Amino acid sequence: MSRIVMKFGGTSVADLGRIRNAAAHIQREVAAGNEVAVTVSAMAGETNRLVALCREASPIHDAREYDAVVSSGENVTSGLLAIVLQGEGIEARSFQGWQIPMRTSAAHGAARVEEIDTADLRTRMGNGQVIVVAGFQGLSPQNRITTLGRGGSDTTAVALAAALQADRCDIYTDVDGVYTTDPRIVPSARRIDRISHEEMLEMASLGAKVLHVRSVELAMTHDLPVMVRSSFDDPAAPGPGTLITGEMNPMEQETVTSIAYSKDESQVTLRDVPDSPGVASAVFGPLADAGINVDMIVQTVSEDGTSTQITFTVPETEYARATAAIEGARDNIRYGSMEGDTAVVKVSVIGVGMRSHAGVAATAFKALAEKGINIRAITTSEIKISVLIDAEYTELAVRALHSVYGLDKVPA
Ligand code: ASP
Ligand code: MG
Fold this sequence. Notes:
Layout (H helix, E strand, L loop, with lengths): L2 E6 L7 H16 L3 E6 L5 H12 L5 H8 L1 H16 L4 E4 L6 E3 L8 E4 L2 H8 L3 E5 L2 E3 L5 E3 L5 H11 L4 E6 L20 E3 H9 L7 H9 L4 E5 L11 E4 L12 E17 L4 H11 L7 E5 L5 E8 L4 H10 L1 H4 L3 E14 L9 H11 L6 E5 L2 E7 L3 H11 L8
Parallel strand pairs: 1-2, 1-9, 2-6, 3-6, 9-11, 10-12
Antiparallel strand pairs: 4-5, 7-8, 11-12, 13-15, 13-16, 14-15, 16-18, 17-18
């Protein structure tokens, strides 16, 4: 017997037919003798509809009321799933975030889960009740409804699993696992059987959309195994999915496990900046003050060493604010000119095996050079290499890297 948390995403609860299908997956786990808690998203498209209604009501709106509105999609699916489960003779009850309560920070629209009181839930689960928790929502210290950010019901599921000390958290979605890269770009992408928390964290942070970044962080901190699997599989015989886990046998570790890409990038270049101590602080201080996250940074010095050129990237959504912050600090930075580009993409090569293998970066640079793709900026960590390139080369670059590291599926 295990205690498990099962999460169903928007396409897995898109209508009553899909909700009945989710119930069949739950039924299987209950029949196997497991204690089950469930988290659901809103029906596919519903949260977008609610977000649009808020904008239409008023372009500038109270973030607390936005959360009150956009959290409601999950209220509907949690109640409907409980009704369907009951109809099948399974004891079930829905919980909205505030009823547990799922305590979060007051950062409306991007709240962090802080505390979940699970005593009552554990008793209920021990008595055979299936708990159905509305994902994505919580309660602030001021007792207002909060939401965890788009895609946040993954985080509800993992936070709940950690608080319940569950054995496993299963994330049901519309794909049968985590892939070596986006299969829409690379048809030869493969489903990954097992991947480490840290690689999954890099993938999610670097643009792979399969899991909410915060959910992977939480799973890693709590050493919680997470499975990504498809609700579209036959409930009687589901496929293996992808297991995200802390313990990886070194023999299983590939040098490179995946290629991710992110289009939400923009590049800013400052030319003819007088090169003197404090220049980086003059540039990046105002961006930090504006709460803008800077990702890649490249600084080059002119031949005579008197001036420097600084290139950095920020999310495309922050581009206008970033350039405004730099212009506002022009007297202090004293740059000659500023240029920017939003038609850029960040492509990343990820793998824990990079720690022990030399030459991984060189292979990437060579593969890109052979395709005539110019690299605008580079960043690396112990387990990833990211390059910034022109957006028009995204597919070419992802395919070339996927193949050069041997990730392509071997044709059957
Ligand atoms: N329904 C929310 C959204 O669309 C949360 C989620 O699905 O994870 O962002
Ligand atoms: Mg999602």
